Amino acid sequence: MSTNDSILLFEYFTASGEKDKCIISEAEAMLFGLIEDLSDYNLDVVLNESYGSIVSKYDNVNPILIETDIISWLKDNACNFDKAIFIAAENNNNLYNITKILEENNVFIYTSSSEACLISSDKSLTYESISNDVPQPRTFRFKIDSKGYWKRAITNLHEKWQAEDPLTPLKLIIKPLIGVDCEDIVIIEDINDLSYDLEEIFPPESRIIVQEFIEGSDVSVSLICHNGKATPISLNKQFVELKNDKGTYIGGKLPFKSEYKRDAFEIAKKACESVEGLNGFVGVDLIISSDEKDIHPVYLLEVNSRFTTPYVGLRKIANFNIAKTIIEGNIEEIDVSLDGEVEFKKQGNNLDIRRI
């Protein structure tokens, strides 16, 4: 089991035995990156038994093989560890639940607090928590009711927002309240499209948000957060594929050159420093508006209180060790520079990462 100087490390899908090949290639890339960046530390790495051999080449790793999912295992075993760093996403509140278990067992975590994860995971809470600090698309929260009253409510909201600028056709975007990587988003080009049965995507009792759709470039900012301060590392281009008015995140390129980089960095930094408890690697999604008349060139979309995919690219070109910096807590001492460019794309079942 753990020694006093070791760190508990795991990635949710490889620790739970997930077999979806589209997910696993990305999960393994992030896990291996974290292990390699922390080669100076003794690591207790939790893996499902079916992934027991994937870390055999690492001398600093003590593999802990489990038969159950990581959340069940943590409930029984987290008390045996002093420190932890992990990779997990918001699906099914996994990020929040894992963090909460570690906190309740007095494990020191190098990631965000459970309260910060809760706020960041819920798009409505994020909007409300930082609405006065940075530009955001107008946002409203709904619940899909079985009688279809939500359609009238969204139509009324569209009419109200459209009346504020009647000359510019208003598009809407509908998202799950808690979602990952453009999961289940729907773009409404025309309000009459609400006749389409969205309940196939959002069944009754689903909680959603409705936002005005901002035309522009999808980007993100990667940051390191520590003690209430956020340090931007990179502006990243996001590749989002739109099919049948639905979006899918397929990768990105970094660093992304834009005249609005400073605006994006400032908004991302303010947003992160507005959410108490954000720590470690954090990703902030934004959109650079394509409307030259827009008073705000950049809008905040959401905050991801966790390791995000750009980490696998950044660690290849950053002039410092990201994970080690998080562990050592010397964020204020880093002078960020990036040597080259990296593109990462989901190609079938693989995540292709390459310098460009």
List its salient traits.
356 residues, seven-stranded antiparallel sheet, five-stranded parallel sheet, 29% helix
Assign a percent range to the helix content: 25-40%
Instruction: Report the uncertain regions.
Output: none
Instruction: Determine the N-to-C terminus distance.
Output: 42 Å
Order of helices and strands: EHHEEHEHEHHEHEEEEEEHEEHHEE
The general outline is: globular
Number of strands: 16
Mean pLDDT: 90
Number of helices: 10
Radius of gyration: 21 Å
For the sheet with most strands, the description reads: 7 strands, antiparallel
Q: Strand fraction band? A: 25-35%
Strand order of the largest sheet: 14-13-10-11-12-15-16
Which structural class best describes the helix and strand composition?
alpha+beta
What do these coordinates show?
- It is a single chain.
- This protein is an alpha+beta fold.
- Helix content is 29%, strand content 31%.
- Strands 14-13-10-11-12-15-16 form a seven-stranded antiparallel sheet. Strands 3-2-1-4-5 form a five-stranded parallel sheet, with helices on both faces.
- A hairpin with a 2-residue loop joins strand 11 (229-243) and strand 12 (246-254).
- Helix 3 packs parallel to helix 4 and helix 4 (94-104) runs antiparallel to helix 5.
- The chain is globular and about 65 Å long.
